[in-house]
TrEMBL record:
It comes from Paenibacillus thalictri. It is found in: Cell membrane. Belongs to the binding-protein-dependent transport system permease family. The chain crosses the membrane at residues 14-35, 79-98, 110-131, 143-162, 183-205, 256-275. Keywords: Cell membrane, Membrane, Transmembrane, Transmembrane helix, Transport. This is Carbohydrate ABC transporter permease.
C-alpha cells in the first residue's frame, strides 16, 4: 500500500499564490467592468461608476449595435477575412513547409535560405504599402489576406514538426503506389492535426484582431474591420450615430462601446476552449525533432 505524501506549503508558496491571485484579480476586473456595463440597463446606468454586476440587466446596447449598418458591415468584413485568411494561411504554410522537408526537391535550401533571411530582415511600412498599392489591392479585403499568407517563424515551426514525422510512413506509402499529393493528404495532414489545430487558433486570432493593416489599406468605411470600427467608436466618438444620453431610445455611448468590445472578444473566447488541448501540444511538437 503506497502512501500519498502531500507537500506542505511554505511561506514562499503562500506569497507566490497570493501575488498570482492578486494579479489575476487585477486582470479580470477590466473584463468584468466591460461585461457589466454592456449589459446594464440604460435607465439605471451611471457614468464612471464601477459595476461588478449590472444593477439591472438589459440587451439594449447589443440590440442597438446589431441594428446599425456600420457594425453589421464590419462583422461581415471581419468574418470573411478571418475564415478565408485562416484557410489560405493553413494551406500555404503546410504545403510550403512540407515541400521544404523533401530532401529530393531541387532548390529547397535556396528557398529555406530566403525564408530565414526574412526572419532576420524585415521590410518597412512604406515598401509594403507600395507593393499593395501597385498590385491594386487598396480598399480590398485581399490587401489584408495576400500579404499575410505565411511568415518565416510559422514555416520553420511547421517544418520542424513535419521533419519529426516518421519517414518510414512515407516510404511505405510510396511502395503502395501513393504519390506525393496522396502522401500529404492521407498521411501527413492526419498526423499533423495537433499542429493544425494550434496554428488555426494562431491564424484565426491574428485575422480576427487585424487592425493596423486594415487602418492603412482600407479607407472605405463600409469595408472596415471590427477592430477599426471599435477604435473609431472608442476614440473617435460616434461612428454609429450614438449620443452620450439615452434620448430617443439610443443607449448611452459607454454601454454601446462596451457592447462592441465584448462582441469582439467573445468569438475568440468561445473558440479557444475547444482547441486549447491541442494548443501546447502542437507548439511543442513543432519545436522538437525526434
Amino acid at each position: 500500500m503506497s502512501l500519498v505524501h502531500q507537500k506542505r506549503l511554505t511561506a514562499a508558496d503562500w506569497i507566490n499564490y497570493s501575488v498570482l491571485t492578486a494579479l489575476s484579480v487585477i486582470c479580470v476586473f477590466p473584463f468584468l467592468y466591460i461585461f457589466s456595463v454592456s449589459f446594464t440597463d440604460p435607465a439605471v446606468y451611471v457614468p464612471l461608476k464601477f459595476y461588478l454586476l449590472p444593477p439591472k440587466w438589459s440587451l439594449d446596447a447589443y440590440k442597438y449595435i446589431l441594428s446599425t449598418q456600420n457594425f453589421l458591415d464590419s462583422i461581415k468584413s471581419t468574418v470573411f477575412i478571418t475564415v478565408v485568411g485562416t484557410v489560405l494561411q493553413l494551406i500555404v504554410t503546410f504545403t510550403l513547409a512540407y515541400g521544404l522537408t523533401r530532401k529530393d526537391l531541387d532548390g529547397r535550401k535556396i528557398v529555406l535560405g530566403f525564408v530565414i533571411f526574412t526572419l532576420v530582415f524585415h521590410t518597412g511600412i512604406v515598401p509594403n504599402y507600395l507593393v499593395v498599392k501597385n498590385l491594386g489591392l487598396l480598399n480590398s479585403y485581399w490587401a489584408l489576406i495576400w500579404p499575410n499568407l505565411t511568415n518565416a517563424w510559422t514555416l520553420i515551426v511547421v517544418k520542424s514538426f513535419l521533419d519529426s514525422l516518421p519517414a518510414e510512413l512515407e516510404e511505405s506509402a510510396k511502395m503502395d503506389g501513393c504519390n506525393d499529393l496522396g502522401i500529404f493528404c492521407r498521411i501527413v495532414l492526419p498526423l499533423s492535426m495537433p499542429a493544425i489545430a494550434a496554428f488555426t487558433l494562431f491564424f484565426a486570432v491574428s485575422q480576427w484582431n487585424i487592425y493596423f493593416n486594415a487602418l492603412i489599406y482600407i479607407s472605405d468605411a463600409k469595408k472596415w474591420t471590427l477592430q477599426v470600427l471599435i477604435k473609431a467608436l472608442v476614440l473617435d466618438s460616434t461612428p454609429l450615430g450614438v449620443s452620450g444620453t439615452a434620448a430617443d431610445g439610443i443607449p448611452p455611448l459607454e454601454t454601446v462601446r462596451m457592447a462592441a468590445v465584448t462582441f469582439a472578444m467573445v468569438p475568440i473566447l468561445l473558440v479557444y476552449p475547444f482547441l486549447q488541448k491541442y494548443f501546447a501540444k502542437g507548439v511543442m511538437l513543432g519545436s522538437i525533432k525526434g
